[in-house]
Amino acid sequence: AQSVTQLGSHVSVSEGALVLLRCNYSSSVPPYLFWYVQYPNQGLQLLLKYTSAATLVKGINGFEAEFKKSETSFHLTKPSAHMSDAAEYFCAVSGNFGNEKLTFGTGTRLTIIP
Amino acid sequence: NAGVTQTPKFQVLKTGQSMTLQCAQDMNHNSMYWYRQDPGMGLRLIYYSASEGTTDKGEVPNGYNVSRLNKREFSLRLESAAPSQTSVYFCASISQNTGELFFGEGSRLTVL
Fold it and tell me: Which residues of B touch A46 (CB under 8 A)?
């Protein structure tokens, strides 16, 4: 079984500041890990994914995440926040690839302060 | 490329009424999913279909039924709607090559 915990349901950062959204996972098998973003009144879009090829994963819009097995973490970062980054972010885990159900975290709403 | 299309986008029901949410994908994906999204609870899986002709329960299946009509279409039915089913429902399909979930735009359902 897999699960994810997202620490902080709401995060606020100033425009230009570092964005750090936390995700810890639990998995009985080597995990596949994902970050999705949801803009208001839209479905979710894939930001980036970890599939064991490289521990530092780069995604769209300047986001990246690092897989740390020893810490069971997959935190999402962006060096400099932009107003357009305001959205809700979901971490997800799967034990399989391509035909397995993903388990989502409860989400972190990111607010950017001008 | 339409991706995942779900209808209707909005629906208001009275307690006890029934309705079906429709979903279709044009990406030739094998697996399809229905999630519900509630504030503070993230996305919870209702039902999924790993391939045409198969369906399985997810985390919160009570009060719902599904049909995988063909490879493209996966519908979700509420037989007797309850206020606890007020939610935003998302259909999704998964790429067997990239592992990426593709989502529809959501259906906002209110049960009075």
Answer: 100-101
